[in-house]
Design goal:
Length: 229
């Protein structure tokens, strides 16, 4: 088992450090243009092989398809970092992959994006509002107590920090650093937690945290997070 981290402070510090490459990219790019991001999100650019994001992620980033995450109101920096992490860098493969190391479904989508595209789409999504009428919610009452306990207090004997420490008590996340999980599709959250645990998604300290959680832990907290508001 991978080396356990000893504190929530350390976890937060390392997650922030993991976001710095995305911030560095942003510093080198022109000022983001939310209007241009909207056009790319809605229409794509078939001349460059860029597909319209709205097809999978829904109007204003409010996905209604469980396998695709809702991106409305996500931090600009977080979205930009994830798009970078789907892309290969020179001879280095992406650090965010699908199950068993297969390319993520997003890899061919992110591949043609320029730095300006990434910053523009990320800014556009950060300005969108969550449509709570379309948002997912918890569906398993029998795991609510377990999910709530992990969210609020973690699992002390396995050094799993409280999810709320980084994603906030209501699941809104901390702007610029940690994503919103409230209203996210529970099946998507569970899939991502398993990818973290397997190491196929290696772009976040969540890899170490998920490694210390059972299948039941992951399922319970994913469902609980979806129901937060």
């Amino acid at each position: 088992m991978k080396r356990a981290l000893s504190s929530v402070f350390m976890a937060g510090s390392l997650i922030l450090a993991g976001a710095l490459p995305g911030l560095a990219h942003a510093a080198d790019a022109p000022k983001p243009d939310a209007k241009a991001g909207e056009q790319l999100f809605l229409n794509g650019d078939m001349s460059r092989g860029v597909l319209a994001c709205v097809t999978c992620h829904g109007e204003g980033g409010n996905s209604t398809i469980p396998m695709y995450p809702s991106l409305a109101a996500m931090p600009h920096e977080y979205i930009a970092k994830q798009l970078h992490d789907f892309k290969s860098v020179g001879d280095k493969p992406p650090v965010r992959n699908g199950a068993e190391g297969a390319p993520s479904v997003m890899a061919p989508m992110a591949g043609p994006l320029t730095e300006a595209d990434i910053q523009n789409v990320a800014l556009y999504l950060s300005h969108q509002k969550v449509d709570w009428d379309k948002a997912a919610t918890a569906t398993h009452e029998n795991t609510t107590e377990r999910g709530q306990a992990i969210w609020r207090a973690g699992i002390a004997d396995r050094k799993v920090p409280a999810c709320a420490a980084c994603h906030s008590a209501n699941g809104a996340g901390l702007p610029g650093e940690f994503p919103r999980l409230a209203g996210q599709h529970p099946s998507y959250l569970l899939d991502q937690l398993k990818l973290f645990r397997s190491g196929d998604r290696a772009n976040d300290i969540m890899r170490d945290i998920a490694d210390r959680m059972t299948d039941q832990d992951l399922a319970a907290v994913a469902d609980y997070a979806a129901g937060l508001r």
